[in-house]
Design a protein that fits this description.
mainly beta; three-stranded antiparallel beta sheet; signal
Length: about 160
């Protein structure tokens, strides 16, 4: 009987200790990051000074986008929205006609239209796209050209 009681006590002890052991459990927490679509312009020229003799001047910039599937870039001179051709204008509203183009991604696109811009679609994910903007006066200035500072603005508008 003594052995039976001892066995019962050991069995109870073993069963009791088994009931107090912790069960194993796991959990997971999903992780991720949302990178917004973006385009950047870098290496942008400070300005383009048009020579009075009508020779060509140029500026440059680099466009980089992190978008797979493309975007639309519109290149234009501000003056084409007000006039039928691009021009630099002084403070008194006197304008001198200009001619311009952009070389981008192997294309040479005219900026002389009155349509206020050209559309160009790119699909290069994270590849820097260098561009060169060229502009000149259509006719050289003369002694009768009114004095003053003549300006226009070249714009790049990227839609994605």
């Amino acid at each position: 009987m003594k052995i039976l009681l001892k066995s019962a006590a050991v069995t109870a002890l073993l069963l009791g200790s088994g009931l107090t052991q912790a069960a194993t459990t796991t959990s997971s927490i999903p992780m991720g990051v949302d990178v917004p679509r973006s385009c950047t312009l870098s290496n942008v020229s400070a300005g383009i000074i048009l020579p009075e003799d009508g020779s060509e001047a140029q500026g440059a910039f680099t466009l980089t986008c992190n978008i797979d599937g493309g975007f639309t870039a519109t290149y234009s001179f501000d003056s084409t929205s007000s006039y039928s051709s691009s021009r630099v204008v002084n403070a008194n509203g006197v304008g001198l006609e200009t001619s311009g183009s952009i070389q981008v991604a192997g294309w040479n696109l005219s900026l002389d239209t009155g349509s206020n811009g050209l559309h160009f679609i790119q699909t290069w994910l994270n590849n820097p796209i260098p561009a060169i903007v060229k502009a000149k006066l259509k006719s050289p200035t003369t002694a009768t050209t009114p004095a003053g500072v003549y300006t226009d603005t070249f714009r790049v508008n990227v839609t994605y």
